[in-house]
Fold this protein.
Amino acid sequence: MKKLISLLIVAAMLLGMCAFAAAEEPVEVRVSVSSLGNGWPATLEEDWVYQKILKDINVSFKLELVDDYWNAMGTRMDIYDAYMIDIDHLRTWGRDGALLDLTELKETKLASYYNWLGSTKLSAAYVDGVLYGLPKLYDGSKSQLCVTIRQDWLDALGLKMPETIQDLYDVAYAFTYNDPDKNGENDTLGLTAAKPSATGVFLFDTILGSFDTAMGNWILIRDGKVTNALLQPGMVQGLEWCKKFVDAKIVDNDCLSTAGTSQFVSGKVGMIGCTWPGIWKAYGQQQIHDVNPNAVTNFFTTLKSEVGAEPAMYQGDLNSTNAILAISADISEEKLDALIKYIDYITVGEGANLVYYGLEGEHWVYDEQGRIRMTENATAANYISTYQLFSRKELEYLDAKFPEAKMVFDQTTAANRIWTYNSLVVEPEGMYLSDMESYARQQLLDFIYGDRELSEAEYANFIQELNDMYQFDEYMAAAEEQLREQGIVE
């Protein structure tokens, strides 16, 4: 009898151990993405982020690259548990029943994630009143743009930091013609830009911000109504100022197609409209001083408005994202719970530090004040950003990664922008938005460079051309309707 009892106990223990082992089997979650981080590991064994996630939360979380994403995903959606998706496809797939309705989960299983999002606007994630997506965090820090200027050139010429569009012109003129580097040669220019753009022209956005507009198709809201940068009342006046800069030959025309960073770094141009990293990170400053050890850089973020608007320079997307995580409608409860476990893991605490900075002690450490500081091995963690899914607390991240530029990114983050809503608007069926934007860009340049008469009447003709040839008026009607549906305007 005792032997039988012993055998039963052993059997029960074995069954329990088997059940425990089965419970500990990691749950696999597959997420399709259209791109992976630089230096992505060749195998899961080499992917130390994957391995750390597996160890910490027992989830086999696999980010899988899909080439030719949208065409391929049409036949492969059933393979994945979740997808990084744009707003257009979110609407289409949501209405087709391919995506999981997350509405009830928002206050339950996803409550921690939505609390982490804070004031992030959620309108883009809804389709016909149903929540289908998990948007990226927006914390106000996505448009870190400024004009970086050679302070030593200002000092050499007895000039002040520009505050108005006239100041900007005067400084650019002096930097071009008054030998600011004192080498006795006429070899400098006033203004360049670091970022050519397919939809706008970064160089001239430096100027147009003073007129409450920007170069190209940018959907705006003014006085509670939907409008467009192309329709702003100050646009013609702003273009006249752009033309004035061009006619005076004080801007770098090459930066319309090629980034002007090298021109600024080499000391050929005295001001550059730029995002801060290329210039203000340590390596950017080192490049400048390698060419001219006596160079002194400074920056400004906005100029005074010429049309009574709030000072602003450059456009920024207030709604932050056209990439949203959507979940397959066919996902199992087990996989859904595993995915949410991962989401909670990467948004706070140890998991957030992992996908933002890498491994503690190897890629980063805490300093004496308890702040995260990167080690010499930090570049080995460059690929990890794809694991973030929902972006990050940007200012905290930048303070850890680039403390040398804190003053610049703090001020550029705080600066007002011309906030746009393009990411929330899907163009009407049959409209070729990219063609319209290319045509608009070229015509604006023609106005500025004198290839088209610049007058209020001719500009009105240009807008009519957009309506007649590219359905611009229908696009704006769709924008108004969609933004009203999303509660952005009444």
